[in-house]
Amino acid sequence: MNKKINAAVFPVAGLGSRFLPATKATPKEMLPIVDKPLIQYGIEEAADAGITKMIFVTGRNKRAIEDHFDSAYELEAELASKDKRDLLRIARSVAPKGVEFVYVRQSSALGLGHAILCAKPALADEPFAVVLADDLIKGDTGAVQQLITASSNNEGPVIGLEAIEPHQSRAYGIVEIRERIGENVIASNMVEKPNPEDAPSNLGVVGRYLLPYEIFEVIENLPTGSGGEIQLTDALAVLARRDGVLGVSLQGQRFDCGSKLGYAKANIEYGLEHSEIGNNLRAYLAGLVG
Length: 290
Ligand code: UTP
Known about the structure:
By secondary structure, this protein is an alpha/beta fold. The protein is built from ten helices and 13 strands. Helix content is 32%, strand content 25%.
């Protein structure tokens, strides 16, 4: 039987500096892919995996996210009065049914490990998921569900992995492989953003994790890591060296929507599948390259 994960943490307090000026007053996770903000894809993925408690770690721009998942009386009243039922249904279905939203604050962006530590008071002593919504993964089965399915009875951390090109290693946490289990691995160590010649493998960590509650104790005892930040990779490396960490090769197409190119590609791929614009976008792109 798969383990039950009840809560997911969404760190959305990063500066998003690669997307300035768009992210000056708006969290990066509110940037839309076609017509839906990145964070909504992440929430839907977690809800599809049976998660009912969504914990946002927000920074200075929490308002837009909070408003997005709250009801919008004026908008709904306006749409209802004009009998725009389809739009009303879209506006009302942003928050999945039966899901609770909790907001905690990271007062300054001290790194992903620190952001996750900020969620501790909102979590019970049980494993939880972490979703970095700017890593958008398009596939038949959601990435969180893939981790849950692969984790089985594994008590330790479970991390999403992707094979990367050597020159990309400086953008990823890279795992050292102790053992291969089919497509998946047991990692014996992890290194944050190594140079290609120092990368211990070609497997990069992507933004989906199942973490045991004990990760907090490890983060609390970490020295400050690369870039003066408290890195999640360093905490995972401690657990990998001690007990090993299960790394799951995620199925699906991943878009790094924290980068401009990845974001543009995601808009094209999701646009091509969009019922309203897909055909016209395809014709337009064919005209561009034809
Ligand atoms: P990134 O490494 O992409 O950093 O964070 P960033 O600040 O968002 O973006 P750039 O590099 O300045 O453009 C990965 C994830 O961790 C969250 C971010 O919101 C993003 O979801 N994060 C990062 C925090 O919540 N707090 C932090 O202190 C750092």
